[in-house]
Amino acid sequence: MTDTPTQLFIGGAWVDAADGATMPVDDPATGEILCHVADAGPKDAKLAEEAAVQAQEAWARTAPRVRSEILRRAYEIIIERTDELAHLMTSEMGKPLAEARGEVAYAAEFFRWFSEEAVRIDGGLATLPDGRNRMLLSRRPVGPCLLITPWNFPLAMGTRKIGPAVAAGCTMLLKPAPQTPLSSLALAAILKEAGLPDGVLNVVTTSRAGEVCEPLLRGGRIRKLSFTGSTAVGQLLLAQSAEAVVRTSMELGGNAPFVVFEDADLDKAVDGAMVAKMRNMGEACTAANRFFVHRSVAEEFGRRLAERMGALVVGPGTRDGVDVGPLIDRRGRAKVEELVADAVERGAQVLVGGRTPEGAGCFYPPTVLAGVDPGSRLMDTEIFGPVAAILTFDDEDEVIRRANDTPWGLVGYVFTEGLDRALRVSERLEVGMVGLNTGLVSNPAAPFGGVKQSGLGREGGRVGIDEFLEYQYLAVPVR
Ligand code: NAD
């Protein structure tokens, strides 16, 4: 902690906010203040924007190999410092150390992946159908980007955006979530150490996100917004981006269905449920939010899931043997409590959990609710906590209709041993990603993203870099 930067990172230098403002960073396991970081205002954001704009032209001209090797070095440094980064992440976000180590590896992998993509940016040359003209296609960086990240994956949401932006030759301003600024500041220090030129990445921590970001989006110098966060904020930012026609990538909320058919292998389904529900204490956009279980296996599935959930150890993420850390803050926990109370009022049975413990820290126990009424609020709200809500269904058409009956479409999970059914159901789900007999889809080499109100564009995979590139077409007559 002692070496973690707490200032803004602008033009390659660590600086205080212009007005000297700072904001506290809390430990969600104790409620205590860990440290204070700079709290930027619009003036600081303008300076960061200026640094990114100034650095853009030279950065776009650097050799792809140079950009690639910076990312590769940063990947290696992150892996070497896994323990240090994991502790930092756990202290500001709460997830157990083992999960934090997993996130460090996941986060680093985006840098390795995009270091490999940086040198594979292609173009094209073709004679057009009329035979009189040639088409020369090249790809260039979109320009200075604004990257806005949430608190739930403090390191990986940064690398998933910074990796392709660096690979493509874009400069950027990163605005992390106010709850978890330390991981992003540590990442900036690592990229500097890896040789990233000054001004390419600027990090602005702030408690005044709206005041800081809106002028940037409307100002016309930022050419790209890459946002990960809630759908409500994403919608606001899309509207703000319209004025200067800023290109946008949006990774927004989810409301994942988890469908267990009567022919599912229940061992796989329960294992999958534990991952899809409990990764990150349920604070994931990919978290299974609605468990649709075939009536004939619902009781057995509920019993087994409750047994596994009830055996998890809840406590501070730094403590050995802890499986479930605290939720991010009191507000986040109050929302989970309200959703559970609403479901119970409407007749849900609590198979395990459901009771907030006394004491400091934002802990909430792993909870399984059975017989959930479809009208319950948690059916159309991201729970963002360790609560599995089970509903029953009778046939395939019905469950597909109910799974799709939501404005979101990020991910769905399907458990069945039938190949035809697996493919048929997956293809009919209105989602960007499907976990087939697995509770985990995230992988840096795969295109991550959703449809409907879960977002626009994809991050990771071969297409991840496309979000940061524009085509330029040269018309060249054949002489
Ligand atoms: P949030 O929308 O409250 O905040 C996300 C980021 O936006 C933060 O940095 C926040 O400071 C910033 N922000 C808030 N208001 C803003 C404004 N007016 N202008 C500019 N920036 C603003 O979301 P959160 O609570 O931090 O994260 C949880 C949400 O993120 C969930 O909905 C989750 O599903 C979603 N999420 C999505 C993905 C994905 O890839 N689809 C991944 C992780 C999280």
Automatic annotation (TrEMBL):
Residues 14-472 form the Aldehyde dehydrogenase domain. PROSITE patterns: ALDEHYDE_DEHYDR_GLU. Its EC number is 1.2.1.16, 1.2.1.20, 1.2.1.79. One of its GO terms (biological process) is gamma-aminobutyric acid catabolic process. One of its GO terms (molecular function) is succinate-semialdehyde dehydrogenase (NAD+) activity. Keywords: Oxidoreductase. The active site is at E251. Belongs to the aldehyde dehydrogenase family. This is Succinate-semialdehyde dehydrogenase/glutarate-semialdehyde dehydrogenase. It comes from Streptomyces paradoxus. The lineage of its organism: Bacteria, Bacillati, Actinomycetota, Actinomycetes, Kitasatosporales.
